[in-house]
Amino acid sequence: MNFDKELDARGLSCPLPILKTKKSLSDMGSGQVLKVVSTDCGSVKDMQAFASQTGNELLEQSEAGGEYFFYMKKK
């Protein structure tokens, strides 16, 4: 998937991946896509909740080798 910006949140635990995601999205334009890579398994539920609460669209999420990948489209 194409993305405009990547956030490396590996090694960070809740709530830091979400806080850094929020900050990264604030620097982006509407319609741009942020790729987030996290190692915190709690990020899966956190990103889903963040998307529904903020109106940003969680386009895709996946897991591979203990890393979680999220693609968030800014509203």
Short description:
The chain has 75 residues and is an alpha+beta fold. It has two helices and four strands, in the order E-H-E-H-E-E. It has a single domain, classed as TusA-like domain (Translation Initiation Factor IF3), CATH 3.30.110.
Textual characterization of the structure:
The model has no long low-confidence stretch (mean pLDDT 97). The longest helix is centred in the middle third of the chain and has 12 residues, at 43-54. It is built from two helices and four strands, in the order βαβαββ. The chain has a single domain (5-73), classed as Translation Initiation Factor IF3. With 75 residues, the protein is α+β, with helices and mostly antiparallel strands. Strand 3 (57-64) and strand 4 (67-73) form a beta hairpin. It starts with a strand and ends with a strand.
Task: Write the topology of this structure.
Layout: E1 5-9, H1 16-26, E2 33-38, H2 43-54, E3 57-64, E4 67-73
Parallel strand pairs: 1-2
Antiparallel strand pairs: 2-4, 3-4
Name its key features.
75 residues; alpha+beta; Translation Initiation Factor IF3; four-stranded mixed β-sheet; 35% strand; globular
